């Protein structure tokens, strides 16, 4: 890895790699083209970025101008980003799943001048709102046949295919080479690199202002804490680059180290792509890991008999090995022999489905259920759990490779201070840094607050909102509740998420929901109970499990009724809820529930793009059904 200093900027990262680590002819990006993945070199990437920089400068784009992305992960994203970063422009990536009104708000709020558009569907979205966006000058479809869409719309905006922009940029490059070099040298660490709009569980999205210093310092600190990432590694990228987690943990890390990035085609084809690419590292979200766990357990045990016994035996062996290693004890010869057999008979077959080369996966975006972390630990695939927010670029803590406490998000990264603040008295309970780490340290619970290189400049155009989250002493208030457990940070819940029942008991819904999500019959669950006598829930059943148990066809799932009132299904879900309730305190147990036919989704406005439930939206939308849950007598425990 090339040397990173406090003055390093995003456009310098990739050039450092080419000068010091990899030759221009070696592979940087991999994109599926037909039946195979096509390699794209570091040299091609930089050449395309330079061509785009020339085009931007020719069209009057200046340092500080905001340029938009509405596109899935692909090499074009990288070229476009590298091209604008090196002239000091600002990346504004928009989630493709957002509604037209949300996209319009961001375009106007950020004052976008150009926008790169990924497919026909997204171009239609933009054309419906483009005339309302005065600053928007250029629409740049990433595909050549955009006329099929634009012919049905009247637009005053200039529309050019990405390929046309690239070719024009190449023809202009000779005239702009010196200007590009000068512009790159003028980019300062404190300059804005990106505006990333928060997903907004409540209220209007806010643009977090992240600088080159924020991103580069975050990558540097993470690589110090996880030194096992090397230039030979291959990352498989499928989480959206419009989200800060994938941007930093995959894209910026690879630009720094010189590792390769392969782009997955879609979530549906992820399993196939893993077999093709054979990645060594992936950034993932807990829901993907939950699904892998469910499928592996089902595949290993559904047949019953000897196969099931071998599967369960192997995971008991894996559990014993994991626990000994976590305790720092020797595995010993007899257990080592069993572990070798378990690997051969069971674990190797599961690992083959991930491509067989995974060193570890980095999980972020939400809390990883403890049972899922334990499953992968028993299997022998390391899951490094990280924690942070859009406003912290994003990483504040991440698991160390050699020291893991499942259920926590790891050690504080170098260069920042994380404190726990009492939510009532506002007294700071403890301050912890990377250097103060003590594997025996425990703290009380409170709001997690942070200072240091990761903290954003503020919210774009929203000084009052900025003052609300960054106090006079410079602490950024995350809104998350947590504590220190064995020296590692542990997230309890969101402050806004906490339910306080009518008896004054605090209930952390994420922890309770994760217990019930152990059931293979439950796909999603939303807990209700603030200012109420007891907890209820909206439950979304697993469609796969419903099909298997009741032989339903697709028509059943497409029925217009929002809720399922079949007593057989209610009793079927209730079986698992009763069983899992034994793991909870009495006041944390669900006393009544309704079954929602269709999953909560981003498109329906019920989930944020990072798949967090919009509590206010859901409670308002289903207020009548929720009230009915409390109009009936419930069974006592």
Automatic annotation (TrEMBL):
GO terms for cellular component: membrane. It comes from the Bacteria. SUPFAM superfamilies: Acetyl-CoA synthetase-like. InterPro entries: AMP-binding_CS, AMP-dep_synth/lig_dom, ANL_N_sf. Keywords: ATP-binding, Nucleotide-binding. Pfam families: AMP-binding, AMP-binding_C_3. Residues 22-460 form the AMP-dependent synthetase/ligase domain. GO terms for molecular function: ATP binding; long-chain fatty acid-CoA ligase activity. This is AMP-forming long-chain acyl-CoA synthetase. It comes from Solitalea canadensis (strain ATCC 29591 / DSM 3403 / JCM 21819 / LMG 8368 / NBRC 15130 / NCIMB 12057 / USAM 9D).
């Amino acid at each position: 890895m090339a040397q990173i200093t406090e003055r390093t900027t995003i456009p310098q990262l990739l050039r450092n790699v080419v000068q010091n680590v990899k030759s221009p002819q070696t592979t940087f990006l991999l994109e599926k083209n037909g039946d195979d993945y096509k390699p794209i070199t570091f040299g091609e990437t930089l050449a395309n970025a330079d061509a785009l920089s020339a085009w931007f400068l020719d069209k009057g784009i200046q340092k500080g101008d905001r340029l938009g992305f509405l596109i899935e992960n692909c090499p074009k994203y990288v070229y476009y980003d590298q091209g604008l970063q090196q002239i000091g422009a600002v990346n504004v990536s928009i989630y493709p799943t957002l509604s037209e009104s949300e996209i319009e708000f961001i375009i106007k709020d950020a004052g976008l001048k150009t926008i790169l558009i990924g497919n026909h569907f997204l171009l239609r979205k933009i054309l419906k709102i483009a005339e309302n966006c005065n600053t928007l000058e250029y629409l740049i479809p990433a595909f050549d046949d955009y006329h099929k869409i634009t012919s049905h719309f009247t637009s005053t905006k200039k529309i050019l295919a990405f390929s046309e922009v690239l070719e024009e940029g190449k023809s202009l490059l000779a005239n702009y080479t010196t200007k590009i070099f000068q512009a790159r040298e003028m980019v300062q660490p404190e300059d804005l690199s990106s505006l990333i709009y928060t997903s907004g569980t409540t209220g209007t999205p806010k643009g977090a202002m992240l600088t080159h210093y924020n991103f580069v310092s975050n990558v540097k600190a993470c690589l110090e804490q996880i030194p096992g990432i090397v230039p030979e590694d291959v990352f498989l990228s499928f989480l959206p680059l419009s989200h800060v987690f994938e941007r930093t943990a995959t894209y910026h890390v690879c630009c720094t180290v010189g590792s390769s990035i392969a782009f997955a085609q879609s979530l549906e084809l992820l399993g196939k792509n893993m077999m093709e690419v054979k990645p060594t590292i992936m950034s993932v979200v807990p829901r993907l890991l939950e699904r892998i766990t469910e499928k592996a357990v089902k595949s290993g045990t559904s047949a019953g008999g000897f196969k099931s016994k071998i599967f369960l035996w192997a995971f008991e062996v894996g559990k014993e090995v994991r626990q000994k290693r976590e305790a720092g004890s020797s595995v010993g010869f007899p257990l080592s022999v069993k572990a070798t057999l378990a690997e051969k008979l069971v674990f190797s077959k599961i690992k083959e489905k991930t491509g067989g080369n995974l060193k570890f996966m980095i999980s972020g975006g939400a809390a990883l259920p403890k049972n899922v972390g334990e499953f992968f630990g028993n299997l022998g695939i390391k899951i490094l759990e990280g924690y942070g927010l859009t406003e912290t670029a994003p990483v504040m803590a991440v698991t160390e490779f050699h020291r893991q406490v499942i259920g926590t998000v790891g050690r504080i990264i170098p260069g920042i201070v994380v404190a726990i603040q009492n939510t009532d008295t506002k007294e700071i309970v403890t301050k912890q840094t990377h250097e103060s780490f003590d594997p025996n340290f425990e703290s009380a619970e409170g709001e997690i607050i942070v200072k240091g290189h990761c903290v954003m400049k503020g919210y774009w155009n929203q000084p009052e909102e900025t003052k609300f989250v960054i106090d006079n002493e410079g602490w950024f208030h995350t809104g998350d509740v947590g504590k220190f457990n064995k020296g590692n940070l542990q997230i309890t819940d969101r402050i806004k998420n906490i339910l306080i029942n009518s008896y004054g008991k605090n209930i952390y819904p994420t922890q309770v929901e994760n217990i019930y999500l152990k059931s293979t019959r439950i796909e999603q669950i939303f807990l209700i109970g603030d200012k109420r006598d007891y907890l209820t829930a909206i439950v979304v059943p697993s469609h796969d499990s419903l099909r298997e148990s009741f032989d339903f066809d697709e028509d059943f799932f497409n029925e217009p009724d929002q809720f399922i009132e079949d007593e057989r299904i209610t009793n079927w879900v209730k079986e698992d809820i009763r069983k899992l309730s034994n793991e909870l305190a009495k006041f944390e147990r669900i006393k009544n529930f309704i079954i929602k036919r269709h999953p909560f989704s981003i498109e329906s406005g019920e989930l944020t793009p990072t798949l967090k439930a919009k509590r206010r939206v859901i409670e308002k939308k289903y207020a009548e059904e929720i009230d009915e849950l409390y109009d009936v007598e419930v069974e006592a425990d």
